[in-house]
Amino acid sequence: MTSIAERAHAAAVFIRHTMAVSPHGRWRGEEHARTAVRLAATLGLGLDQITTEPDWLRRRTTPGEPVLATATCPQTAEKYVFLARFPVYDDEAFELLGPCPECAALVPIATIRNLADLGDRLAQGPLRHEECDSETGAPDTFHTDQAHTDTCRYGEAL
Ligand SMILES: [Zn+2]
């Protein structure tokens, strides 16, 4: 186990390095790097278990385009995909993505602020129709997410 100081130093180096080499430019590189550092800390993982990519589906024209961050479990190799919808805001919760029970698109199925939030969602299993139809079963962003297919009854008609 490395010391707090060593891990803190590694995180700072990681952010500077990612900014320098990001194919998406320095500032988007910083958003990706900070998202990875924050998700690694949230899940208690190393930075080498997190990858990030732009979320082309949920792009917008305001600053801080959304980032998709994938965490790979070092024990089971299972992958969990998280959305940082507003990566410039460090205090925004992550959204865990999972299949919509209606259209199977990867949509927000839980709001994740800490490891216990993920534990609660995993204990419940995949998102179910009953949850989507209830007031509190699915996150608000589930209902407005752009990933639902055009014919999905949960997607917002635009
Ligand atoms: Zn759907």
Supply database-style keywords.
binds zinc ion; globular; 5 helices; 35% helix; alpha+beta; five-stranded antiparallel β-sheet; 158 residues
Explain this structure to me?
This protein has 158 residues and is of the alpha+beta class. The protein has helices spanning 4-21, 26-43, 115-124, 129-133, 140-144; strands at 50-54, 67-72, 79-84, 94-99, 106-112. Strands 1-2-3-4-5 form a 5-stranded antiparallel beta sheet, with helices on one face. The longest helix has 18 residues, at 4-21. The mean pLDDT is 93. The site of zinc ion has 9 residues, from loops.
Lay out the secondary structure.
Elements: H1 4-21, H2 26-43, E1 50-54, E2 67-72, E3 79-84, E4 94-99, E5 106-112, H3 115-124, H4 129-133, H5 140-144
Antiparallel strand pairs: 1-2, 2-3, 3-4, 4-5
Helix pairs in contact: 1-2
The chain binds zinc ion (ZN).
Residues 100, 102-103, 105, 107, 148, 152, 154-155 line the site of zinc ion.
